[in-house]
Amino acid sequence: MDEEKKGTVHYKGAEGGWGSVRGITETWMREVDRPGALRTLERQNKPGGFMCVSCAWTKPAHPHGFEFCENGAKATLWDLTSRRCTPQVLARHRVSELKTWRDHDLEQLGRLTHPMRYDAATDSYVPCSWQEAFDGIGRELRAIDPGAAVFYTSGRASLETAYLFQLFARLYGHNNLPDSSNMCHETTSVALKKLIGVPVGTSVLSDFHHCDAIFFFGQNTGTNSPRMLHPLKEAVERGVKIVTFNPIRERGLEVFRDPQSPAEMLHLKKPTLISHQYLQVRAGGDIAAITGLIKHILAAEEKLWAEEQRHVLDVDFLEQHTDGFEALKAHVAGMSWEAIEAESGLSRADLEAAAQVYVEAKNTIVMYGMGLTQQVHGFENLAMIVNLLLLKGNIGREGTGCSPVRGHSNVQGQRTVGISEKPELVPLDKLAELFGFDPPRDKGMNTVESCEKILSGEVKAFIGLGGNFVRAIPEREKMEEAWTRLRLTVQIATKLNRSHLINGQVAYLLPCLSRTEVDEQASGPQTVTMEDSLSCIHGSVAHNKPASEHLLSEIAIVAGIAKATLPPNPKVQWDEWVADYGRVRDLIEQTYPDEFAQFNERLFTPGGFYRGNAARDRVWKTESGKAEFTVPDHLSAAGFEDAPGRYRLMTLRSNDQFNTTIYGYSDRLRGIEGTRDVLLMHPDEIAAAGLEEGQVVGLRTDAGDGVHREVGGLTVTPFLLPRGCVASYYPEMNVLIPLSHHDQESKTPAAKAVPVRIVT
Q1: Is 719 exposed, middle or buried (0-12, 13-18, 19+ CB in 10 A)?
Q2: Which residues contact 300 (CB under 8 A, 6 or more apart)?
Q3: CA 222-232-236 angle, 5° bins
Q4: Does residue 409 surpass a pLDDT of 60?
Q5: Which residues, 6 or more positions from 49, have their beta carbon under 8 angstroms from its beta carbon?
Q6: Once rounded to an integer, what is the mean pLDDT over residues 114-143?
Q7: Nearest to 488 by CA among 513, 509, 466
């Protein structure tokens, strides 16, 4: 594509470098009035330090001098802000006024300092005591059927908190435990579990030191998880070829200037070119693209066998460890290159060049992000990735594997310790034995199902352990209206966000310690743990003074609500667990003895301790007992047809945000400054639509369901995207996503290809 088209915004510098340093410095100067914050950053992701609250990328056994990235530093400084959102501050603003504020401005009020309840008569938050809050919440929960309550977790809570939260839910009487993974990588959990028998990726960090090729699909590394660029840079320097499939030109996967290299920072050494080949696949076109890769690989197998009686494929692995290969082979043979090119938006020559990298590599890792999981046919996207890996036995060998890039810091770990609406994934018999009760066995609600039941009025109570649920979900206008009909809403949080302003009839806002703050309990300062995206468990120790003497830990808050809600049970010892989190880890070990053996003894294993993975050992816990090839039913993952005037909207995050948290208005890596109200379009698309750069337009959902969904005030901005695709920011565009627009298997909202029309 022509990068010099007039008006096209793009960032000509490298990811990292002085731009990252400047971004961190600006956040520090804006948020923190003490130099001690820099000492906190020195301990970030280090042994004996605390684990980053941002992305879930792993922590190496031998860390760099500064083991944090721009996003991770911003997340930490955001927690360490000098600003305080006290009851006096909130008394000056009615909630109806705060609803008109932007997301960034709400969090700029600072750290919450006191427990509060919403007073409808004055439309404001008023302070209350912790016991008043616990008693009020318990009274409301006891008054309703447990099945009418939803207990939600964001990806930030520790393993200890998550374990107690799921125990509370099941003691209370339900499995309604949606969490943030329902909105991002639930497709991974469903697809990989069915196809290779585990719900998580199979690679570990050492595999990146032994691979020959890395294939990337739909993940904006520089924007969302920049610390991952260090092992990618090291891989490139030893000759690994990285092939990237992404509709967006992600600068971090193009060029990286290492902030920890003086030679690169002083421009004495050139930055690293990350991607050997960068292919801008259409949004939803990955099934077609991978079909093209496999088509070339199978042709290369036929040619090499005919000419030299050698194999490209790992035929022994295919015979011993897989099922369904012949069906896939026949399907790919019957697919025309014309159809593949049309749907992927890529040429046969480019796909064959990419496939040849795979053919020539002995060991390949495939990484992917929400560009694949957040599609109507996201399951088939991931099934095609598994198909690709299985062809050459690239699962269960050193230097290989499937590696989903998880978003939030402990979102994977929460599932590991029981945060799941699916009772078959939780050792309920063990919980029954440990705690002397009969756990509920019926399926609970995931995020989409919770929203559906809130709309229908069947859900009466919502307990939010972190996050910004109302802002993160689809169908925002209808959901916010329905939210006010809930009887009880409880939000456990560190800062004010949009979800705290949309309240039920009884509403509490409970402030908690952040991961950076010392958690002092009866037995002394506490350690918490989390699991990274490569299935390693890490201990985290905080050193900072709490933002307020009135804050409680997440564990203390969960225990306080549980004690006020549940009848006494001699086997359920909330006070003892709050006093010593090591006792909670003992419970986790007893519940999951294989994964968490000697849990307390291994807290600070350098690089974390690996909890194991059956597929990595080539033990396939699938229905067939083998890894499953799958024949896709669709060539496009978008879930809707092309039509004149209809575009595929991709929602994006800027490099000045993390999930729904907006740090500022600089999307440096895309060359966009000072605004989030943009509509990114290819320059030729702008001209073809009769629009002009700088014109203000709106977007309307084109779902054909009779519901009017529209966002206005978007400035047309030239950007290099595939034809037929437009892009704008999350979470602002969530209002355009129908609740029904989700992956067919996992119900993950399909935010990466939404049917829209431009409104002028």
Answers
A1: buried
A2: 312, 355, 356, 359
A3: 125
A4: yes
A5: 42, 43, 540, 541, 543
A6: 97
A7: 509
The residue among 169, 184, 748, 179 whose CA lies nearest residue 461 is 169
What are the angstrom distances between the C-alpha of 643 and each of 344, 345, 648, 651, 703? 16, 16, 10, 20, 12
Taking the C-alpha atoms of residue 487 and residue 457, their distance in angstroms, rounded to an integer, is 10
Please check whether residue 150 is in contact with residue 459, taking contact to mean a CB–CB distance below 8 angstroms: yes
Q: What type of residue is 9?
A: V
Q: For residues 535 and 610, is the Cβ–Cβ distance under 8 A? A: yes
> Phi then psi for 758, rounded to 5 degrees?
-90, 135
DSSP state of 544: B
149-153, strands of its sheet edge to edge: 124-127, 116-119, 506-511, 488-493, 461-465, 149-153
CB 144 within 8 A of CB 172: no
Hey, how many other C-beta atoms are within 10 angstroms of the C-beta on 2?
Answer: 9
What span, in angstroms and rounded, lies between the C-alpha atoms of 389 and 353? 17
Q: How many CB atoms lie within 10 A of CB 582?
A: 15
Confidence of residue 431 (pLDDT cuts 50, 70, 90): very high
Q: What is the mean pLDDT of the chain?
A: 92
67, exposed or middle or buried, with CB in 10 Å at 0-12, 13-18, 19+? buried
Residue owning tokens 């600070």: 604
The two tokens of residue 553 are 């830990």
Q: Would you state the structure tokens that stand for residue 712, as one six-digit string? A: 């206005």
pLDDT given at position 268: 64
Provide CB contacts within 8 A for 177, sequence distance 6+.
151, 152, 153, 165, 166, 169, 418, 419, 420, 421, 444
DSSP string of 408-470? BTTHHHHHHTT--S-GGGS-HHHHHHHHTS----S----HHHHHHHHHHT---EEEEESS-HH
- Residue showing tokens 């908190």: 161
Residue 37 has φ and ψ, to the nearest 5°, of -60, -30
Taking alpha carbons only, the member of 96, 213, 75, 186 closest to residue 503 is 96
Ramachandran quadrant class, 624 (left: phi over 0; alpha: psi -120 to 50; beta: rest): alpha
Residues ≥6 apart with Cβ < 8 Å to 601? none
* CA 210 to centroid of chain Cα atoms: 26
Once rounded to an integer, what is the mean pLDDT over residues 359-381?
97
pLDDT in tens, 249-260: 888 888 887 776
Q: HSE, CB side, 13 Å, CA atoms: give it for residue 497.
A: 22
Name the token pair of 268.
Answer: 């004495």
pLDDT of residue 1: 42
Q: Residues of the chain with pLDDT > 90: what percent?
A: 79
Q: Is the pLDDT of residue 658 over 60?
A: yes
pLDDT, tens digit, for every residue of 509-545? 999 999 999 999 999 999 999 999 899 999 999 989 9
What is the average pLDDT across 71-82? 81
Structure token pair of residue 340: 């593949």
Encode 739-752 in three state secondary structure.
CCCECCCCCCECCC
pLDDT digits (tens, 9 = 90+) for 8-65: 766 666 666 556 666 666 665 666 766 666 677 777 777 777 777 777 787 888 877 7
Please give the Cα distance from 610 to 156 (Å, whole number). Answer: 20
Contact 211, 366 (CB under 8 A): no
Provide the 8-state DSSP code for 629. Answer: P
Which tokens belong to 457? 């009025």
